[in-house]
Design a protein that fits this description.
The protein is an alpha+beta fold and 359 residues long. Helices cover 40% and strands 13% of the residues. It is globular and about 65 Å long.
């Protein structure tokens, strides 16, 4: 398979990866042959990239960090919790009856079990989500990325659970804001920004009233918008005043937000998002960023890339410790002509060949 921008999709292309709806259900299944109507509808729903199968790349398959089943169950739980809070507008004093702790411990244990089975922990999020489902899938992605960082840090099982539950529920305070505000696609006014900033306190208050959620987890909701230079909110904390779990969640939040399809801006490639994080050392924890970047597939499997030779290829294999030197399957020559016999080059061995950009 290979990843292509929706504008380059053609009628007859075969979808290679399931497309998910907001609640985690499959909206469009892999194997479906795309029509112009499907392509137009996907573009309208905010999908910017899709994965397609073709004869040149049919055997290239990204290895997901977590299984589709684990992901769907996690998104379903987040969806049910968040929509209940949004629709019913439960008062904070009633939220203690939800008992989210045990439910979300089980959700994250399933994610964690899958992560711990991975031989090579490389962050390669290839799931396709419509923009309307971003809020729910984002929480699962943030928890998954946070889990990878926690494992890399050598956290104990209990620390990993506290981090994971906090990461799954870090944005729960958004459910207590006026519907029209947090769903707004345009620029917020200064008054609206002040209201949105309250979601950190609201989330913390909601979580700290839970019987089985630790205060460490609740601080992910309170502090994930704090910044190391003191420029964040709600309390303008700096450096180690911010709990490490919240500093981890902040990095995962920014990375997944940048690499996700949104209506109001372009979708960053993992390489572009990694460059953004590298330049954000004053805002986010620099040591955690360095650790995180060592676990990112900068050019994930199935990414179409342009080489400095002018050839077009598709990443077929990535390696821990060599984020910029994957194996690339060459599918087009410098003139843009498709090769009848694609071939692969290992950039760890071909040091004079480099990736210019993802295309």
């Amino acid at each position: 398979m290979r990843k292509v921008h929706i504008s380059h999709a053609k009628s007859g292309d075969v979808l290679a990866v399931d497309l998910f709806a907001a609640n985690g259900s499959v909206l469009l299944s892999r194997g479906v042959r795309l029509t112009s109507g499907y392509i137009r509808s996907l573009a309208q729903k905010g999908v910017q990239y899709i994965y397609i199968d073709d004869k040149q790349t049919y055997d290239i398959r990204p290895l997901p960090l977590i299984s589709a089943t684990v992901r769907q169950q996690a998104v379903k739980k987040v969806y049910e919790t968040m929509t209940a809070l949004i629709e019913q507008k439960k008062l904070l004093r009633r939220a203690s009856s939800l008992d989210l702790g045990k439910e979300y411990e089980k959700v994250f244990k399933d994610i964690l079990d899958y992560l711990l089975k991975q031989e090579n922990l490389l962050i390669n999020l290839s799931d396709l989500v419509i923009s309307n489902g971003y809020f729910f899938h984002h929480s699962v992605n943030v928890a998954t990325i946070a889990g990878v960082i926690g494992i890399a840090k050598g956290y104990s099982p209990q620390q990993l659970l506290d981090l994971g539950v906090g990461a799954l529920l870090f944005d729960i305070g958004m459910t207590q804001l006026p519907d029209g505000l947090w769903r707004k696609k345009g620029e917020l006014t200064e008054e609206e920004k002040e209201i949105v900033h309250r979601h950190t306190y609201l989330g913390f208050e909601l979580l700290r009233r839970q019987r089985n959620i630790s205060l460490f987890s609740a601080h992910c909701a309170l502090q994930h918008h704090e910044r190391c230079d003191g420029s964040g909110y709600p309390r303008a904390l700096s450096g180690n005043e911010i709990h490490e779990y919240a500093r981890i969640v902040a990095i995962a939040d920014v990375f997944d937000a940048l690499t996700s399809a949104r209506y109001h801006r372009k979708q960053y490639s993992p390489h572009e998002a990694a460059e953004y994080l590298s330049a954000a050392g004053g805002l986010l924890d620099y040591e955690l960023i360095k650790l995180f970047l060592s676990y990112i597939a900068i050019y994930p499997v199935a990414t179409t890339v342009l080489l400095n030779t002018g050839h077009i290829g598709v990443v077929s294999q990535v390696f821990p410790g060599f984020p910029l030197r994957p194996v690339v399957r060459i599918i087009k020559n410098p003139a843009g002509e498709e090769l009848k016999s694609p071939y692969e080059i290992d950039l760890r061995k071909e040091m004079n060949v480099t990736i210019v950009k993802a295309v």
